Amino acid sequence: MTQDLGQNYYKELIDLKDVKGIETQIQSLLDVAIESVSDLEKWLKDEHNLMIQIKEATTGHLVDFYRNTEDPEIKSTYLHDQQVIQPLLMKYEAKLNEKVCESPYLNQLDEKRYGLMRRVRESKVKLFREENIPLMVREQELCTKYSEIMGGLTVEWDGEEKPFPYIQSQLDHLDRAIREKAYHAMMSAHRQIKSDMDAIMDELVQLRHQIALNAGFENYRDYMFVEKNREYSVQDCYDFHENVEKHIIPAWNRLAEVFKSKLGVDTYRPWDNTAKLMKNPPYSEVSTLMDGVSEMLGKTDPYFADRFDYMRENGLLDLGDRKGKSPGGFCTSLPVSGDTFVFANFSPSFFSLIALIHEMGHAVNGYLQFSENGPTEDYQQRMEVAELYSHGMELLLLDKLDRFYPEEEDFKSAQREELRRAFTMLYGPLSGDLFQHWMYTNPTHTAKERDEKYFEIAKRYGLSPVDTSGLEAEVGMSWAGTLHYFQVPFYNIEYSISMLGSLQLLENYQKNPEQAVESFKRGASADYNQSIAAIYEETGVDFDFSEQAVKRMGEFLEKVIQDIN
């Protein structure tokens, strides 16, 4: 069972309903005279202390809403944050950034400690336009609407109304007929909300394009590269797309033949492209899931289990499926409390087990950061780094999946499925990245063209070995089930980049488990003001997605799968 939804797991040290009071506190920061380097450092600390109080409250409200999208009071609080507090913060953030960037003492700050902060603030000043504030508020309203629609999505299954995640879990079933039935049920549910999804995405594309134009960019893609402060170029991304298509997809096609043979099927259909070789779901109750994951984490490193057990005891996990709960899963930090919260809406399945392990990689990273460096600033949280530790945790626990799959053949199948997932992380998010490059550099596209482009890209990458005949429309519209496209645009390629680093971590673990785990912990607690490459280096891996790196790690991954016999 999960904990009581009313349990308080975050601190509200500031009343977000008191808009005037918040504005007064921020204005007082703007009124402070900064007359020395030490003044500037004190000012940055004071600003930080105020902003983490606001962030903890808004994060708590967001999680409350994701946990129960149907509660009107929770929704009202969340919408107040989105419609009143966020615009206020956008307005004043620009002024705060200008104050810092215009200070003659900024360049006298220690580069190692403050260099990343300076670069991020300078880019924010470059991007800010007051006319974009209402556009961004509307953007958040549309994202909220998406969560409400998906959170309320149910499917009739054998005469009963079931939450959508339950149907997704049936794609793991050993019986091919049940998998096919589940696939068509999911597509039918998507079809019912497709017009709403198209309308939301059509408006989001136009809003985001206008935001980019207002900020002086040709398109939203180019705007986002600056907004994300990426340490690589648009061309680097296109090269990565091509390298994966050249080296990973042929290996994926070979691997698909192995899975097709094990299934005993002549054609590999979309409902066969799932984790379906284990006899049963890994658990039936959430408590059983938590017991097992705690044990797996403890066998890897006692600190990992300690953090998980602490979160379990303190209401920082919400893992079960229920109606009204937003889809997906995530880990988020509570900077005042020094805690992390893991949210997941999955029915019992192999994927839900791996998703929890994945999010615990984020959680451990968060706790190590807090203990070593204090609350991580937003500007420090680069997803190429964060996802290294979530994917890395999955692979460090690969040899402990027998906790849920004690029979030898099931254990081997589970390991193969996790490694198959590693393959999907090399091409799936990357193809989603390419899809978004197309969407936002072609902002006048129609809904029909969007579906056609999604199908085309899917067939080039993950669905290359899959027979999709007669299902072109279903595949084409399936982008609507991916919340990243709606809520966190251009957060995709980071998964694929970090998976290359995580596979290096697995390679190191196979040679020396203890050393690899220590490297994981060292990197996860490293100073996040460093470059991505420096943090990867502290983890014992290379930040490298060149053709040579893609080819080498693809060959390594294929061999590891072949060695499980």
From TrEMBL:
Query: Which InterPro entries does the protein's record reference?
Result: Pept_M3A_M3B, Pept_M3A_M3B_dom, Pept_M3B_oligopep-rel
Q: Which UniProt keywords apply?
A: Hydrolase, Metal-binding, Metalloprotease, Protease, Zinc
Matching Gene3D superfamilies, A to Z? 1.10.1370.30
> Which GO molecular function terms does the record list?
metal ion binding; metalloendopeptidase activity
The Gene Ontology biological process terms listed for this entry are: peptide metabolic process; proteolysis
- Domain Peptidase M3A/M3B catalytic: residue ranges: 174-548
Textual note on the cofactor: Binds 1 zinc ion.
Top-level lineage group? Bacteria
Q: Which cofactor does it need?
A: Zn(2+)
Question: Which family is this sequence assigned to?
Answer: Belongs to the peptidase M3 family.
Q: What is the designated name of this protein? A: M3 family oligoendopeptidase
